[in-house]
Amino acid sequence: EVQLVESGGGLVQPGGSLRLSCAASGFTFSRYWMNWVRQAPGKGPVWVSRINSDGSDITYADSVRGRFTISRDNAKNTLYLQMNSLRAEDTAVYYCARWPDHVGGAEYFQHWGQGTLVTVSS
Amino acid sequence: DIVMTQSPDSLAVSLGERATINCKSSQSVLYSSNNKNYLAWYQQKPGQPPKLLINWASTRESVVPDRFVGSGSGTEFTLTISSLQAEDVALYYCQQYYGTPYTFGQGTKLEIK
């Protein structure tokens, strides 16, 4: 069974930093692209970033490019999101999510973690 | 970016009746080379992550009841719940995966009348 467990969320001041982690199990993590998707309170989901299986191909949403960095450690089966220069509008539940297949094309989110809440406030 | 617009924002339907949710994309999500629509539907209940219901606009996930039906092509799509059950009360989102940034609709809140 695919399991994705996020951690690292919390309360941070504007301008601060936070690193999120997503521990993956139940599948061969090193073969799959991975994504971060966030959802602000009362709003719809918003895709944040994706990374390919070996970390060589990365894409960001415009709203986070230059401030957030996605990475992965395949030896630890863990996905990361380093968030710098945080703003109030970054307040959201952050989910890691996986496509159904290890190749592109079917780029919908079949598997989701339970999410970790990031609150940016002074 | 492809903008996804859902209608209505909220919907109240009697148990056993049909619920229809619409989703419109600002540009076509039909990929001509394979004739597939890059459109998914999700259901989200409070405190839970979104749950994938339908992909390729009309392919139901294996665990999803057959009362959930996706249809449409190009820029206009519909999610129909043929006979509303109490457990269908939720938020519903469409999402395009034609290209990055992947984008979601604003959501439709489905309630019991």
Give the SSE map.
The complex is a heterodimer of chains A (122) and B (113).
Chain A: E1 3-7, E2 10-12, E3 18-25, E4 34-39, E5 45-51, E6 58-60, E7 68-73, E8 78-83, E9 92-98, E10 111-112, E11 116-120
Parallel strand pairs in A: 2-11
Antiparallel strand pairs in A: 1-3, 3-8, 4-5, 4-9, 5-6, 7-8, 9-10, 9-11
Chain B: E1 4-7, E2 10-13, E3 19-25, E4 30-31, E5 36-37, E6 39-44, E7 51-55, E8 59-60, E9 68-73, E10 76-81, E11 90-96, E12 103-104, E13 108-112
Parallel strand pairs in B: 2-13
Antiparallel strand pairs in B: 1-3, 3-10, 4-5, 6-7, 6-11, 7-8, 9-10, 11-12, 11-13
Number of helices of chain B: 0
Oligomer: heterodimer
Shape of chain B: globular
The stretches of 5 or more residues of chain A where confidence is low (pLDDT under 50) are: none
Major sheet size, sense and barrel closure of chain A: 7 strands, mixed
Distance between the termini of chain B: 36 Å
